[in-house]
Every structure is written in C-alpha cells, then in structure tokens.
C-alpha cells in the first residue's frame, strides 16, 4: 500500500500502516533537500520576482465566487507580508552612509524625475530577500543559545547587520545558511560574554511554604517560544532544527547551565546535526576541541534533564489536550479540588523572572487556595483561559477579571509539562509576550 508519490522524483511513497506520526511528503532526505534548494532558487525569491508575483496575484483576483476570492486575497497577503519583511530588513541593514545619496553624485535620484532604483538600494533589497528567508530558523537557533524570545529577536537583527557589513567577504565556499549560522552563533557568544548570565537557585521567601524539596534552578531570563513562529517543513526541511524535544523548556533550562562555547558546540552538533569539522569551522575551533567540548557538555546536560519520554504519539497529544481543557475549566470554576487532582505529587511551579516557586502538590495548592477563594481577602478575581502552544508543549493564556472590574486582562501564560495523566511542571510567564502567541491582551466580560 502506498500513500501517493514523491513530488521530487515521482517514486511511490511507502504506506504508513501501523506507523505513527506525520506522513512523509518526500521519499527521502535527498528529494526534500533538492526541493528546498529549488524553492530557494525560484525567481520569486528575488525582490523583483516577488514584486512580479504580487502583480500577477493582483491581476488574477476576482471578487466571486467568495471561496476563490478569499483564497486569492490570502495568497496576496502572504506575498505582500513577505515583501514587507524584506523591505524592513533592507531598511534595518542599510548602510547609513549610502542610504541617502547626495544629489549630483552617482546613485542619487532626481526628486522631479524619480529616476530608477540605485544599485546600492537594489543590492540591499536583494540581500534582504536572501537573508529574510532564514529569519525563523535563525531565531530558533538564537533562542536555544540565549533562552529568551526577546533576546533571540535582537540577536537575529544583529546577525543580519553583521552579515550585511561582511557581505563582501563572503567567498561562497560555504552555503549562505552555514555562513549565517556562523555569524548568528558568534553574535550569541558575544552577547553571553557581555551579560555573563549564570543560573542560580531559588531562595525561600519569608512566610511562604515552598515545599520540602530542594529549590529548582532559577533562570530569570527564560521565556517561552510560540509554536506558530517555528519554521514550517517547507521553510526548514531539517526536522532536527525544530524538533519538539530540543525546544521544551526543560531542555532550554538545562543547556543554560553549560558554558557558552560548550552550549554552542552541543547545539550545532547534537541539535542541528553539523559534523565536527563544520562545527569547528563555525566556531573557529579545532576538531579535537569541538569533540572535547561535546564530551564535557553531554554529561552536564544529562544531569539537569528530567526523565525523558521515548517518543511523542498522537495518543499522548490527545491526552494532554484533555488535561489542558480540564485545567482551564477548573480554574475558571475556581475549583481547587479539581486542579489538585490534575497535579502530580511532586509538581514544580516556577515563575521566571519572579522569585516565586513551589515543589509538591501540597505547597502549590496552599498557595493557590488564597487567590482562588472568593472569601479570601487576597482573592485575585475570576479567570478565563485561551489555549496556546509554546516550546512544543501545551499552554494556557490566563486572564483575570479583578473584583469590581468588567474586563479580563492578560495575567499569565502557563506552559505545562505532562507525564502520563498528571501535570508535573508548570512554568508561568508574564503576559507581555501574549501577542507573539496570537493572544489578545484583553477579553470582554461577556465572552
């Protein structure tokens, strides 16, 4: 039995009877990579080609039937959005010396005749079109290196600026992707040298029951990453680069314990799958030094990781969604008993960057009982939740309508780690990243 044919070579795809996971689109990694390179080389990947594509889509728009019209407008919006991102990248990487030529000099545009685009502007636009297609996967890479979504965005922008300034030195001996990863990795290493971040341990707060276990690691800069912002398989065919396990918060927290260069080696070798020689070239190290750093990094990483699940299955995803739905419904009903039944006995809750932490169901329920009890003087208010996904895990965007108000305001993003039928870890983040997850900052009271 087959599931269709490979769009790359036309060979039949193997059937998936008895197999779990997503169906293959291509018959092999070679066909997938070939199609990926062809898409990158397509005319629409140049600025002029993309402009022509937008023009074609505009000419083909018809207002009826509605389904066709909607499809055409959606395609147009995607193309215009990409063109806008390219223009933004070109603007942000533009050399201020050549961005506005002086009238009378080569490259200047007559304000009356509005002459052709300058060679400098064209080079900037073509460069922006080239690097913009790598933005998402580079942001994931910088996120793994930094542990912060905000810092990752800044580091990608720094990568593009460095790449623009160093464009004349790109000899083409390596791929553009390898070249950009080298710049991004070194931008991350420079950032870590400047900030000198080191994980600490949470400390007890006066008058608060944190539970009897050892305090967990405190990583104040840790932030969630929205699943919708991950590269698609069309943009990034190498599944390792966006694999679920290497984006989980426990993995992100664990690699923050590694020295920056060991972290870079582990990410490049074990996450991205680069060979030792490629990693050595990216980091200006010897192959022996790369292998030595990797041998030191792996045991440290294992020491900071919890027990791992062997694989992700559709059944596990369904069960986790059911637990998330029960968790949100119980919180909205202020049903502390139901919340408690969903928690494992050794549940851990942390709230980076805040100093609050709890280990154990009893300590966490004691903390929640004060804010969920309407008769308590510390009652926080009534809750509403919207589901989300972060770091390959289920999450809940929590909104609170405080007593005496009529609007639910964004309060917290809870990222859940589920094992079996219990929640074993909750990492609660502040709400400023809600827009990155497609979540509003307010909900009406009559929702």
Largest sheet: 7 strands, mixed
Note the run of SSEs as H and E.
EEHHHHHHHEEHHHHHHEEHEEEEE
Q: Span between N and C termini?
A: 48 Å
Which outline best applies? globular
Approximate helicity band: 40-55%
Give the amount of beta strand, in percent: 5-15%
Structural class: alpha+beta
Kindly state the number of beta strands. Answer: 11
Question: If you compute it from the alpha carbons, what radius of gyration comes out, rounded to the nearest whole angstrom?
Answer: 25 Å
Number of DSSP helical runs: 14
Low-confidence regions: 39-44, 97-122, 237-241
Nearest-integer average pLDDT:
81
List the helices and strands and how they pair.
Elements: E1 2-5, E2 12-14, H1 29-41, H2 47-59, H3 66-93, H4 119-132, H5 135-146, H6 149-165, H7 176-195, E3 200-201, E4 217-218, H8 249-255, H9 260-271, H10 276-283, H11 287-303, H12 314-332, H13 336-342, E5 343-350, E6 357-359, H14 361-372, E7 382-390, E8 393-401, E9 407-419, E10 422-429, E11 442-444
Parallel strand pairs: 5-10
Antiparallel strand pairs: 1-2, 3-4, 5-6, 7-8, 8-9, 9-10, 9-11
Helix pairs in contact: 2-3, 3-4, 5-6, 5-7, 6-7, 9-11, 10-11, 12-13
